[in-house]
Amino acid sequence: MSSTTLKCPICAHSLQNDQKNLSCVNRHSFDQAKQGYFNLLMSNKKRSKSPGDNIEMVLARQTFLNTGIYQPISEALNETCSQWITEHASTLEDPIRILDLGCGEGYYTERLYNALHPQSIELIGLDISKDAVRYAAKRNKQVTWLVASGAEIPVMPRSQDLIVCLFTRLMPEGIAPALSRQGTLITVTTGKQHLIEMREILYPSIKDQVLDPQVPLASHFKLDQQQAFQAKHTLTSSQQIQDLLAMTPHQWRAPAVGREKLLSLDSLTITIDVNISCFSLKEDQISPESL
Ligand SMILES: C[S@@+](CC[C@H](N)C(=O)[O-])C[C@H]1O[C@@H](n2cnc3c(N)ncnc32)[C@H](O)[C@@H]1O
Q1: Is 81 annotated as a binding residue?
Q2: What phi and psi values does residue 3 have, to the nearest 5 degrees?
Q3: Where are the transmembrane segments (predicted)?
Q4: I need a surface site. Which of 76, 91, 106, 156 has the fewest CB within 10 A?
Q5: % of the chain beyond a pLDDT of 90
Q6: Where along the chain do the CATH 3.40.50.150 domains lie?
Q7: Would you say residue 231 has pLDDT above 70?
Q8: Residue 254 Cα to ligand 1 middle (Å)
Q9: What is the residue with the minimal CA distance to atom 13 of ligand 1?
Q10: Closest residue by CA, ligand 1 atom 10
Q11: Which pLDDT tens digit goes with each residue over 139-158?
């Protein structure tokens, strides 16, 4: 039996890990799925039968990400995390606790683990989509994979040193209690030019799709630093174009005529334009009463 930073989603007591089972003092018990993840999402917290990305999106994302086209984003994120750990080394306890919120099929989570290991880290990958977590769990057995919601993260209060969140809805009420007082939230969000070439083909006119992460996070977090990352890449097959489309909301948002035009191409140069932002908790969130 070993203690964990995981929290029982029913009574909020800490969960102990015994082989392939998590349980709390109130005997709420959660078995590990055979693929290696734990499902801590209560059915009364689900808004639909299968929340989050569906299997088609998961498989398209995995095929696309495995090509390595987005690897520079992963490298930039890993570098930001490494730098943060180096800068905070004197105040960090062993192990360093990191959570990837909305981890999807685990591409970035696995690469983050490999980049930071063999430093002593405990990494959790969490997503509301069971299909996504099933695939993520196949990537790495050292990461703790959870089906859960970012709106109510099942970890003990103030237990995580770093929370990373890539291309996922930002849920400050869920993230703030999970983060340690000196912890940092690192977001990766799309910039103005991201996939501009694809959007120009899909839509008769382009809407500005920039999400400033400060807007949804302002109630709980302050921005410490932000860095833009840009690159170009040429997709060289219609399959790559199809996978890229299928892993984005444009798959169901874009008009049929635009999608047909895009899918008739067998090459496409794309702009990758993302912002990596570091946030810390606002003063009023750090007080014990804020939990
Ligand atoms: C655009 S994908 C990004 C996945 C991964 N971070 C990546 O970049 O490859 C957004 C992910 O957020 C997940 N998601 C949506 N709502 C969520 C919630 N409330 N809690 C946790 N994950 C959620 C989806 O299932 C999906 O896997």
Answers
A1: no
A2: -80, 155
A3: none
A4: 91
A5: 90
A6: 36-290
A7: yes
A8: 20
A9: 102
A10: 168
A11: 999 999 999 999 999 999 99
- pLDDT confidence of residue 215: 96
3-state secondary structure of 243: helix
Nearest to 143 by CA among 35, 280, 18: 35
How far, in Å, CA of 132 to CA of 146, rounded? 10
Contacts by residues 111-116 (CB-CB < 8 Å, ≥ 24 positions apart): 111/71, 111/74, 111/78, 112/74, 112/77, 112/78, 112/81, 112/164, 113/140, 113/142, 113/143, 115/78, 115/81, 115/82, 116/78, 116/81, 116/82, 116/85
**Residue nearest ligand 1's atom 9 by CA:** 104
Ligand 1 pocket residues where CB is under 6 Å: 52-53, 61, 102-104, 107-108, 127-129, 132, 149-151, 166-169
DSSP class of residue 177? H
Residue found by looking up tokens 């490494």 in the block = 82
Measured in angstroms, how far is the CA atom of residue 53 from the centroid of ligand 1? 7
Q: Which range (16-20, 48-52, 203-207, 228-232) has the least confidence?
A: 48-52
- Band of the pLDDT at 209, cuts 50, 70, 90? low
Do residues 98 and 120 lie in contact, with contact meaning Cβ atoms separated by under 8 Å?
no
* pLDDT score of 290 more than 80: no
Mean pLDDT, the chain, integer: 95
